[in-house]
Each structure stands twice: as structure tokens, then as C-alpha cells.
Amino acid sequence: MTSPTSNTQLRTLTRAEKVAAVLLSLDKEIAQRLLKHFDQVEIRRIAKLAAGLGSIPATDIETIFEEFGDHLANNGVDLIGTAGQAEELLSGAIPPEQVSEIMSEVLGASNQQFWSRLSSMSEATIAAYLVNEHPQTIAIVASKLESALAAKMLAQFPAQTRNEVVRRMLTAGPVSNVALRLIETTLQEELMGATSPGVSKGANTRVAAIINQMDGAQAEGILQAIAGTEPTIADELKKMLFTFEDIPKLSRRARMVLFDQIPTDRLILALRGADAVVREAILPCLSARMRRMVEAEIATPNVAPRRDVVRAQRQIADAVLRLVEQGTIEIGGAEE
User: Fold this and answer.
1) Which CATH fold topology does 113-192 show?
2) Per-residue pLDDT tens digits for 1-58
3) What is the pTM of this model?
4) Residue 6, burial from CB neighbour count under 10 angstroms (0-12, 13-18, 19+)
5) Domain 201-325 - what CATH class?
């Protein structure tokens, strides 16, 4: 902590910046092992924050470690967060091509991985989003898309707009990194981050949680009614419906986060009615001690009432949806 005689106040860091600072201060091998439990969005954010941390006094790092409930071996060396430090942190934790992609984004270069993901969307969806944009913006987007998709997208516009866009693609000068980054960020948040215009992801998650509580016939009837007028939203809702049997669809990281919050007795009860596939998806994600306890319990004869087993499984499925709504995990992403 700061000495009472010091005139320097502790630098105010966000929680995410504190995570980046802790990772930079750890042994490289340990930090890399920790990074493997983060998803790509989180890794990108950490890399950006690590690159811009600048100088942080060792006393501040000690305070951060105290907040995390850990201990810092004070060697008196201040921490300096730079782009080089961020790249070294990522190296070894993820493939080299991903390191290159993330660092190019951190340093301001075009995010090719983002444009590849955008190219997986339909031309009608992209065109519908860009229909009211300036021709120059449309030209920038078209120049970044794969040629076949760009052609199909431009075909969705009136001839006058299409001709103007192509003219600008031919005559416009280079696009600044600032402008390109602004377009990428906007597309990421408003187009790729939304299921459809006017419908938030949070609303979809809440509706999915309600439908999950209904019986099969009621849920199917609602989905059919929605599909009649909003087929895209209905498809998104179907992807978000979740039962205990869908646990294997979660990524290993998501399963570890989930079962870190589930009481052992509830998990044991739920697993008594689970098939082998679900058990094999859950058990490896538990701590060694908890796994031994769970395996010993479920090896005994099942004497629990069926309704209690179903209730425990439903509670775990509800916990998944809560974590999804909080943005902590995502449904899908299970390893092949």
C-alpha cells in the first residue's frame, strides 16, 4: 500500500486492467496457462489493456494482488505494460496466427479475422444494415469482403447507389486506421452482435429462459407462432433453449465456470439421472477432490425420487441461462 509519507496517489485501474496487470506480473508460463481459459474476446481485451497500461509501481501491483486474495513477492521492480509485453504474454498461450491477428488489432492494423467472420453472413443481411449508410462507408465494407459476397451484396442496392459505390471503390484513397477501426467496431456491435434490428440479445435470453420453463408442447407452439412473423428471431431462440442434456454443447471453460458455482449435493442428484455422455462432459471439469466425491456418490444405488432429480437438472440448466444472460459464458463452443 502507499506509504503515509508518499505524495503519490494509487493509480485508479478498472477490474479488467487489474487482470491484465496481474497476468503481466506473473511468471510467463503460469500466465499462459491461465490465458488458455479465456475466450478470444477476453484475450483481445486483455492484450489491448496490457499494451496500454504503461508504468505501474510495484506498490500498486501489491495492492492489486491483495484484492485478488493472493500474495506478491515484492522484488521492488515496477511493472511497465507495453505492446511488446502484451505480445510476449500471448505467445505460447494461443497459436502464432492468432497472436499476430490480435496484435495487429492492438497496434491499429485491419482485423482480417473480423472481416472473415463478416463474410460468413448473408449478403441480404449486410445490405439491409448498410442500406441507409453513405456510399463511401458501403464502399469500404465492400472492399473488405470476399469478392463473391461483395458482388451479391451490391446487387441488393439500386443501380444508382451501386454505381456510386463502385466508383468510390475505384477512386477513393487509402482509409485511415482510425476510420476503419470505427467501422469494424460499429459492425461488430450493431450487426454481428444483434440477432435482428430492434431485438436485444438480453431480451432473447430472457424469453429463452421463460420458454425453457414450459413443457414441450407449449414451447413448440410459441416458437411456431414467432416463426410465422419473425423467423430469424425464432431460429435464434431455438439455439438458446437449453436443457441439462445440452451440457456437452458448452465449451470446457464454460462447464468449469458453471460447476464451480453448483453445490455438490445438487450436482450429485442431477447426475443420478444423466446418461454416460453428459457424465463424461461434466466429471473432467470438476476438481480432483470434488470428482472423487461425486463418482463415489453416484456409484451407489439411486434412491432419490425422479422429481428431485429432474428439479436438480432444471436448476443447473437455469444456472447456465443466468450465466449466459450475464455474459459470463456462451451456449455452444464445445470442442470437437
Assistant:
1) Annexin V; domain 1 (1.10.220)
2) 334 333 334 457 787 788 788 788 777 777 777 777 777 777 777 787 777 777 777 7
3) 0.39
4) exposed
5) mainly alpha
